[in-house]
Amino acid sequence: MRKVFLVAFLLLGLSVANAQHYVNPFFDKQGSARISVQEYSPAKDTIIQTFHRNEDVIWSRYVYRIIDLRQKQNYQLYFPAQPDDPDYRSLFRVIVDAIVQGLPVYVKSSDVGDIKPYFDNEPMGREMVPSILNTDRDGSMGDGNIATSDYMLVNYDSTTNEMKFNSYAYAGFVRNQYKYLIQEVVFFDRHTSRMHSKIVGIAPLWADNVDYFEDMPVMDALYGQILFWIAFDELRPYLAQQFIIPSQNETKRVTFDEFFQKRLYATYLVGEGNMYNRMLPDAQYGYNPKDIKREQARIEAELLDFEQDLWEY
């Protein structure tokens, strides 16, 4: 009798435990797959960065790289191209929305050919942003049948000091925005005994009128295409709140912040910080494309060999 009572008690306890445990089904009532949504705090990053002390960094080097969204590995940064997708946003849309919410934007240097970001300067005034995010880059404003504000990707209200996203101009703008220039610092930390790399700034490049920049030196061409600079650490909280559009696996999703911190994107080198203040050799200096690729490979090899050479005995 006592054994029967004990078994009944265990079965009752098991049933109560199962009743309290909520099982979230993968499929909903209509048979569609449930994609879990995770909420992020604006003050929290998805990945914690290592703190590097100034005295531990014994070697560093600035390099400039291009993220070309036409490369297959970078497709997820470009799509969706529509501004009204309810679940996902492209990298450019995330940046524009962040600017509307107050992300500081830094104007490029006034010296032609100087592509370096200057984050010590004051950010661009919010009233100046719409003139840069303008689909009508030649200033003609079309045939005059459409209001000037309709060409602006964001509209500024001087009374409230607020900006508003303009979806009408988004398609015309994003089709010419498929490249980003990043400034990256590569450094060796003796405390961790290894090389690190960190994105310092990111600049959207306007790719319209590419033929106009074709015969220019690399630095002048890049300078002409830079819209503005953004400090990457100031952008990270916004990247941490948006999932990137899945490529193959709809269930396993990562945020834009994780995508960048894990270096899941592809880049190619366009220059390095040097005393001559110039990018890779180009037509201005009598080099052909093969020489440029050779120079890219040389710099990449130097960055890789530096860490390896430290452990040679």
Short description:
With 313 residues, the protein is an alpha+beta fold.
Features:
globular; 29% helix; two-stranded antiparallel ribbon; alpha+beta; 313 residues; single chain; five-stranded antiparallel sheet
Give a topology summary.
Layout: H1 2-20, E1 57-68, H2 75-78, H3 91-101, H4 129-132, E2 154-157, E3 162-165, H5 170-174, E4 179-189, E5 194-205, H6 210-213, H7 218-225, E6 230-231, H8 232-239, H9 256-261, E7 268-272, H10 289-310
Name the helix and strand elements from N-terminus to C-terminus, one letter apiece.
HEHHHEEHEEHHEHHEH
Radius of gyration equals 25 Å
Structural class: alpha+beta
The low-confidence parts are 36-43, 138-147
Q: Widest sheet: strand order?
A: 6-5-4-1-7
Q: How many DSSP H or I helices?
A: 10
Beta-strand level of the residues, as a percent range?
15-25%
Separation, N- and C-terminal Cα atoms: 79 Å
Largest beta sheet, briefly?
A: 5 strands, antiparallel
Percent range for helical residues? 25-40%
Total E-strand runs: 7
Mean pLDDT reading:
77
Approximate shape = globular
